[in-house]
Amino acid sequence: MFRSIVVTEDTPAEPGTAELRTVDDDFLQPGAVTIAVEYSSVNYKDGLALAGSRGVVRSFPLIPGIDLVGTVVSVDEGGAGDADDAGDASGSGGATSQASARFAPGDHVILNGDGIGEKFFGGFSERARVRPDALVKLPAGLTAKRAAAIGTAGFTAMIGVLALEKLGIQPSSGEILVTGAAGGVGSVAIALLAGRGYSVTASTGRADTEGDYLRSLGATTLLNRSELADPGKPLQKQRWAGAIDSVGSTTLANIVAQTNYGGAVVSCGLAQGADLPLTVMPFILRGVTLTGANSVEAPIALREEAWAALAAELDPALLDSMTNTIGLTDVLGPAGAGSRILAGSVRGRTVVDVRA
Ligand SMILES: NC(=O)c1ccc[n+]([C@@H]2O[C@H](COP(=O)([O-])OP(=O)(O)OC[C@H]3O[C@@H](n4cnc5c(N)ncnc54)[C@H](OP(=O)(O)O)[C@@H]3O)[C@@H](O)[C@H]2O)c1
């Protein structure tokens, strides 16, 4: 028996709930790799899942939690079941058949996205059974707790940084803008970029309370996010060599309109909105590139590249300074971490010690 958070669906008879339950292995979905989960984390998407959002929860009941870090208990090719993408966590036949070649009991592993916490059971549980396709071994030198502190937010920040560099952006290119700066993706992006020698401007709505924090991560300039929030001209004064944006909507449109000739912008999120009221002008007159980062479906080679870089580059003391640790039940309820991240009041990263 083990503890899991379970989200149920609204019905005409009663509202859906997110509650702590004690369940057993029979409750878990099919999957080749069974994991004793140690840590998960709270991301914006987890807040939505805990609130029962159908935009995130694809199948009820669901164990939310898009991140997990833990230890492999067993690898069971026979436990993979039929590879059916509609509702089966087993994974493709090819990758599943390699599970025992890639993993063994006792391995420390990380899983970010790949459908967990959305269509497959996720990390807000002491035990998980998952497909092996996107599992990454915990890199040497990184603790399980710090890997959870990085989580999907930090992984996304790193694939954003790698995307900028693959598009030719370097520290000598000029200023880099990070939006949603005091949030999870933003905080890690600032630390990674500053560590690589970039000059970083942090756009935030909380400069009064989080300004010192953002400077401690490596931001050299703070920008009030209201300066980017309203509709602007299609082409504006060139300010940014690159940007990592968690906000979307008119903020992203203004960023693209302010990006230097040859610059690049990575769209990671939609904290302001999913719309994007742009014109083609920045692309046809300045050769700006707008690209995206998708942590959920990132291929295994990118996952391994990003995690190796995160382990090597992210200053543990800086990571600890942006991390708050809570127990499994602390994610629940109106004052819980799930509600607080939706309200925009969480700073940095929240680790969930699922055993606490
Ligand atoms: N593409 C992917 O694979 C991927 C992965 C992870 C996350 N995401 C998305 O990226 C976004 C950030 O995720 P996160 O985990 O970092 O969330 P988070 O910790 O809640 O951070 C979001 C930050 O955005 C800013 N913000 C909130 N509401 C805003 C608004 N209305 N207008 C402008 N800024 C606003 C706030 O920063 P300040 O207080 O500093 O202004 C907030 O801290 C979310 O939309 C999430 O769904 C995408």
UniProtKB/TrEMBL annotation:
Coiled coil: none
Gene3D superfamilies, sorted: Medium-chain alcohol dehydrogenases, catalytic domain, NAD(P)-binding Rossmann-like Domain
Domain Enoyl reductase (ER) residues, every copy: 16-280
Chain residue ranges for the region called Disordered: 80-99
GO molecular function, one term: acryloyl-CoA reductase (NADPH) activity
Pfam families recorded: ADH_N, ADH_zinc_N
Matches recorded under NCBIfam families: oxido_YhdH
PANTHER family in the cross-refs: ACRYLYL-COA REDUCTASE ACUI-RELATED, SHORT-CHAIN DEHYDROGENASE/REDUCTASE
Protein name: Oxidoreductase
Organism in which the protein naturally occurs: Subtercola vilae
